[in-house]
Amino acid sequence: MGNKIKKDDNFLELVPKKTCGYKWKINENGFVQIIIPREGRLDKIVRFFFKTPKEMKIDLDEQGSCVWKLIDGENNIEDIGSNLKDEFGKKAEPIYERLGTYINILRNNDFIKLEKVSD
Fold it and tell me: Would you state the pLDDT for residue 119?
């Protein structure tokens, strides 16, 4: 793993991995809540003046929580999509288009990174 991703790589074969530094828990609704510490210098200044919280919490919905739990560094995107189909059926359709968008959102916000399996 860890090889550089190329444009012609099959997106479904990529393996998402959670990035370090973010804690998460299951909230009272049974969904995932990602907890982002706000410890940077600017964060501390903003907290001092505006009394903002030390952590930012992001609540995922039912399908997002399922995806987050399936991101274990072993499942590739195709495996995750297959699990979504089993879990949610037609409610998750179109599975791979929605999953691809969601994975890219997680990646663009540095919650995950994508790796490809070595040949």
Answer: 55
